[in-house]
Specification:
The complex is a heterodimer of chains A (726) and B (314). Chain A folds into 3 domains: 2-218, no CATH class; 246-601, C8orf32 fold, CATH 3.10.620; 624-723, no CATH class. Chain A has helices at residues 5-33, 38-53, 58-77, 85-104, 112-137, 141-157, 163-189, 195-218, 229-236, 389-392, 417-427, 433-446, 465-473, 478-491, 565-625, 627-641, 646-662, 673-684, 688-701, 711-725, and strands at 267-273, 279-284, 286-287, 292-293, 302-305, 323-329, 342-346, 353-357, 363-366, 378-382, 386-388, 450-451, 475-476, 496-502, 506-510, 516-521, 525-533, 537-541, 552-554. By secondary structure, chain A is α+β, with helices and mostly antiparallel strands. Chain B is of the alpha/beta class and 314 residues long. Chain B folds into 2 domains: 2-204, P-loop containing nucleotide triphosphate hydrolases (Rossmann fold); 212-303, Helicase, Ruva Protein, domain 3 (Orthogonal Bundle), CATH 1.10.8.80. Chain B is 46% helix and 17% strand. Chain B has helices at 2-15, 20-32, 46-57, 72-76, 110-122, 157-160, 174-185, 199-210, 216-231, 241-257, 265-276, 284-288, 293-302; strands at residues 35-39, 61-65, 77-82, 87-92, 99-103, 124-127, 130-133, 139-144, 163-168, 235-237, 281-282. In chain B, a hairpin with a 2-residue loop joins strand 6 and strand 7 (130-133). In chain B, helix 1 (2-15) packs antiparallel against helix 3 (46-57) and helix 8 (199-210) packs across helix 10 (241-257). Chain B starts with a helix and ends in a 12-residue tail after the last helix.
Chain lengths: 726, 314
């Protein structure tokens, strides 16, 4: 059977497209498994496709493929002894041992050459399948869908970035689908196409796909509904930590920060507290350049503590009387909210034990058998630390830093130098650790950063989370700010750690005892910074724009008579600034509360602006879709008003034909009107169409067309029109 | 005027069972002034058909039975020496009449066939240099056995063209055949039918048929079909313009019979196989494959668009 040259051109075109699609399978596999030798694998596919195009006989094609695979394995795994006796012997022994391993069930230990062999077989099978789809089924749709699914899965669950791949695959796949659809049409209808004509059909199709693809790439895209489904799925399956944590709020896994932050106003706790304050849960110390982990080995073990001895490295203020806050969890949580300066965690449940994690300072409540055991309510006793301004502003003489664990100074090796440079520049000229920390904290408020929860960037594989935020995006939420500050602090030698917890929440009420009632939502989940100020201890800082958490600073400079004028002025300035910040914060909270209350009305008007055009569009679509239902009624009304004339008959007959067309009753080109009418009448079981048609025929075939009255057929016509709408 | 036609049809139906279509087509030819070729095996009622038609019209009916030894003079007539007047006198043959049944014309020699066909074409006969025109109406209904039969002289194409329609009779259905037997028990009904139309009336009907209106778009439809037969790959020779004219005239008559004063494409579509069927010469290989010309014509019609607009509008 001799094939025309156009056949080969056509098949070559198909296989080129398929090759490009298949390439997108291999690239991630090679990248993720570090298999290597992508070119050689692609060459194998190319050879297999060529053999398919020219329909080389089975035997020859098998021999070629097997030879190629052998050549590949020998070349890659031995020292280039291609097809020497040694090479073949290597192959044979390798296959023999591995088959023995497989038969013994030792799947894990098969050797790399054998794995490669299996991989080749897999590709071979895939190619065969593609060949079958292409030549027999003439549809590649399954393969197309499979590819898209494969790449998106890899993109989601692995580090592979399939953004470009997916665009390529969709464009190529659409192209292929369209080409094959055309091919199917050609075979079905039995038409033959000259090559030039073929091109004329392909060209507009290609242009359309490319233009659509181009526009699609350029269009702005909505942020993903799920920031990243992996932690979510883990949560669902119960792996992510105790209870079901939402994608917002406090999650266990902070090793990959970034991405959007979805609002969730579920109330997590209600707290009755004398003070408005931040609630600490845990600290993390190990920065991975993508997020936070805690050094688990050895340090992160737990030990049981007494209810009255729940201390953290934030020591209580012994000069003040201890206060009590009462926590009422709304959602079961097995950890304890810590106010700054915590001393005791008091609860009545006798069989619950209190544990503290050494590395993170987190308090967990557990049953005697070691399982997590959330408390229904508990009292925390605390006394918030107070920091002396004088002390903060005095350079230390006896450094305590040697006692601080080195893990609080850890930084990844690959941290870009510009982060260190920036930190050094920021703190330049500051005399005390406090001043330096404050300088970094203030840096974020001055340098064009914006607070943003939507569409926050995720660092790419070779990108540092902090570096990306500081130098490229400059937009983000608490995690971005706090992580950056910790990294900057560490890079200038100040020990620092990353703190997770909740911000103060919304004050909703007052209890009879005069305690303030705060509702803490998942939205209030927060992260901030604690820095070790030499000579003073751990002190919280709040770099995030729009959040205020002022440590209690005792502005005691006046007491120090020797204090220089300059420092006093500075103190005033800082005090004012703090007051200002607190005021602003309160102001904005008030506004937020107001906004929340009026949001239902406020958003109404903007919605209407969107809804009206949307409604109009929907109406128009519905109108067009149902036009055969309502248009005839319009026609009938219009017809009644028109004067009766042959042209009226012609136009009304046309309307009738169109209506019948909606029912699939279409006149074939070789069908006479009479025959068509008989068919229609057969369909409806009437003779009205023949009546109408007889009159219509008169208007087009007879000599005089002037004296025909529409009235003769009006009844039949209206009847038929109504029938077509039913 | 249509009632006369109805009466003729009824008359024929009294004699012929289940042959309304053949009767209608015969009347179409009669009204058009054309001739009919009935082709079928013997004994299906071809002769009876013609006789009942002739009797209904009340016209002069003549019958010529063609045999291989029939001479042209047996058809057109012969001059005989009259001893009394001492002159040759012309004795007209059976062809001079109104309705002529030419039975089994393909059984006679081509020379005799030619004589008949010339008379049909010219509506006149020429004997010894003298031309005698035949009075109207002049309607020949010829029958022939299928050409595959032995002892036949197939009519040449040019002569087939003289016939307006070629009709096949076909066998009756079971019911119809039983009815045929039942009637055969009694007296032949042909004896009972009487004339329901005079020759004058027939002539005026012929005139009326010529006045039936045919829209230009419908004429275009006829031409389209005719042209398509000429371009068809399995046709050696397509139909002539004369055939197109014949189809138009036949369509007028058919429309008239339907009580219309205008021609519809339906008329054309219906008549095309009867008018064109015997005028096509199929390509040899098509003939060997046993393709009938009527099949080709149905194909052609299927591929021709029906006009649904006035010519001026399109």
């Amino acid at each position: 059977m001799k094939k025309e040259s156009t056949y080969y051109i056509e098949m070559t075109l198909y296989y080129i497209i398929l090759f490009l699609i298949l390439r997108e399978w291999l690239v991630p596999v090679v990248e993720l498994t570090s298999t290597g030798h992508l070119e050689l694998l692609l060459l194998f596919i190319a050879i297999a496709f060529l053999l398919n195009i020219f329909e080389v006989s089975f035997l020859i094609s098998w021999v070629i493929k097997i030879v190629y695979i052998s050549w590949f394995i020998v070349r890659v795994y031995t020292d280039g002894t291609v097809f020497s006796g040694a090479g073949i012997q290597f192959l044979v022994t390798d296959i023999r041992t591995n088959i023995a391993l497989l038969l013994a069930g030792d799947w894990e230990v098969v050797t790399d050459p054998f794995r490669s062999l299996l991989f080749f077989v897999l590709i071979w099978m895939l190619i065969y399948l593609i060949h079958h789809w292409l030549t027999v089924r003439k549809t590649i749709f399954y393969f197309f869908v499979l590819t898209v699914f494969f790449i998106s899965t890899l993109d989601t669950f692995t580090t592979y970035d399939g953004k470009a791949a997916i665009v390529k695959v969709v464009l190529l796949g659409l192209m292929m689908t369209a080409l094959l659809y055309m091919k199917r049409l050609i075979t079905q209808t039995g038409t033959t196409f000259a090559f030039s004509k073929y091109i004329r059909y392909i060209l507009p199709m290609t242009i359309t796909i490319v233009v659509v693809g181009f526009i699609a790439v350029l269009l702005p895209k909505a942020a993903p509904q799920w920031p990243d489904p992996v932690p979510y799925i883990k949560n669902l399956s119960g792996k992510g930590g105790q209870n079901s944590m939402s994608q917002v709020g406090i999650g266990e896994d902070d090793s990959r920060l970034g991405g959007s932050f979805e609002a969730d106003d579920t109330v997590v706790f209600t707290v009755h507290s004398p003070d408005k304050q931040y609630w600490r849960i845990e600290t993390k110390d190990f920065y991975t350049s993508k997020g936070w982990e805690s050094i688990t080995d050895g340090i992160n073990d737990e030990y049981e503590v007494l209810q009255e001895e729940a201390f953290t490295s934030i020591l209580p203020n012994m000069n003040e009387e201890a206060k009590s806050a009462y926590v009422y969890p709304e959602i079961d949580r097995a950890y304890v909210l810590q106010p700054y300066g915590i001393m005791s965690v008091l609860f009545d449940e006798p069989d619950v034990r209190l544990y503290q994690e050494r590395g993170t300072e987190r308090f967990n409540t557990k049953s005697p058998d070691g399982s997590n055991r959330p408390l229904t309510q508990y009292e925390v006793v605390y006394s918030a630390p107070e920091y002396s301004y004088t002390q903060l502003k005095t350079p230390v003489t006896n450094s305590e830093l040697m006692y601080i664990d080195q893990r609080y100074l850890q930084l990844p090796e690959e941290l870009p130098d510009r982060v260190r440079t920036l930190a050094a520049d920021t703190v330049e000229g500051r005399k005390t650790d406090y001043d330096r920390a404050k300088a970094i904290e203030q840096y974020f408020k001055r340098s064009g950063f914006t607070y943003e929860t939507d569409d926050v960037a995720v660092p790419a594989e070779d990108q540092d989370y902090v570096d990306q935020f500081l130098f490229e995006t400059k937009r983000g939420y608490c995690d971005n700010f706090s992580t950056s500050m910790v990294v900057m602090l560490r890079s200038v030698g100040i020990p620092a750690r990353w703190v997770k917890g909740y911000a103060n929440g919304t004050e909703v009420d007052k209890t009879d005892e005069g305690l303030r009632v705060f509702e803490v939502e998942n939205n209030d989940a927060h992260s901030w910074v604690e820095a070790y100020i030499d000579g003073i201890g751990w002190m919280p800082f709040e770099p995030t724009i729009g959040f205020v958490n002022q440590s209690d600073i005792n502005f005691d400079m006046e007491l120090n008579e020797s204090a220089p004028e300059e420092l006093l002025r500075e103190q005033d300035l800082e005090r004012q600034q703090i007051e200002q910040e607190v005021k602003e914060q309160e102001e904005s909270e008030k506004q937020a509360a107001q906004k929340k209350r009026s949001s239902s009305e406020g958003s109404g008007s903007t919605w209407i602006v969107l809804i009206i055009p949307a409604l109009l569009i929907v109406l128009a679509i519905v109108g067009i879709k149902t036009r055969r239902k309502w248009m005839p009624k319009v026609y009938i009304q219009a017809q009644r008003r028109k004067p009766s004339s042959p042209s009226t008959i012609q136009s009304s007959y046309k309307v009738l034909m169109r209506q019948l067309g909606f029912l699939g009753l279409k006149r074939k080109p070789d069908e006479t009107l009479h025959a068509f009418a008989a068919r229609v009448d057969g369909h409806f079981g009437t003779n009205d169409m023949s009546k109408v048609t007889a009159v219509y025929e008169k208007t087009i075939y007879s000599k005089e067309k002037g004296n025909i009255q529409f009235e003769e057929i009006k009844e039949s016509w209206e009847y038929l029109i109504n029938r077509t709408t039913g | 005027m249509q009632e006369h036609i109805q009466a003729v049809l009824e008359n024929i139906e009294k004699v012929m069972i289940g042959k309304r279509e053949v009767a209608e087509l015969s009347i179409v030819a009669l009204l058009t002034g054309g001739h009919v070729l009935l082709e079928d095996v013997p004994g299906v009622g071809k002769t009876m058909m013609v006789r009942s038609l002739a009797k209904s019209v009340g016209a002069n009916f003549k019958r010529i039975q063609f045999t291989p030894d029939l001479l042209p003079s047996d058809v057109v007539g012969v001059s005989i020496y009259n001893p009394k007047t001492l002159q040759f006198e012309f004795r007209p043959g059976p062809i001079v009449g109104n309705i002529i049944l030419a039975d089994e014309i393909n059984r006679t020699s081509p020379k005799t066939q030619a004589a008949l066909l010339e008379a049909m074409e010219e509506a006149s006969i020429t004997v010894d240099g003298e031309t005698l025109s035949i009075q109207k109406p002049f309607f020949v209904m010829a029958t022939q056995n299928p050409i595959e039969y032995e002892g036949t002289y197939p009519l040449p194409e040019a002569q087939l063209d003289r016939f307006l329609l070629k009709i096949r009779m076909g066998y009756p259905s079971v019911q119809q055949e039983i009815e045929v037997l039942r009637r055969a028990e009694n007296k032949q009904p042909i004896e009972e039918i009487t004339s329901v139309m005079t020759v004058e009336e027939l002539l005026s009907l012929q005139q009326a048929v010529r006045e039936v209106y045919i829209e230009d778009s419908v004429k275009g439809y006829i031409v389209d079909i005719a042209r398509a037969t000429r371009e068809h790959s399995r046709v050696y020779l397509g139909v002539s313009p004369r055939a197109s004219v014949a189809l138009m005239k036949a369509s007028q008559a058919y429309a008239f019979m339907q009580g219309r004063d205008f021609v519809k494409p339906d008329d054309v579509k219906y008549l095309a196989p009867f008018v064109f069927g015997h005028r096509l010469i199929l390509a040899p290989e098509a003939r060997y494959e046993g393709v009938m010309p009527e099949q080709i014509i149905s194909q052609v019609i299927e591929q021709t668009f029906v006009p649904v607009k006035r010519f001026a509008d399109s």
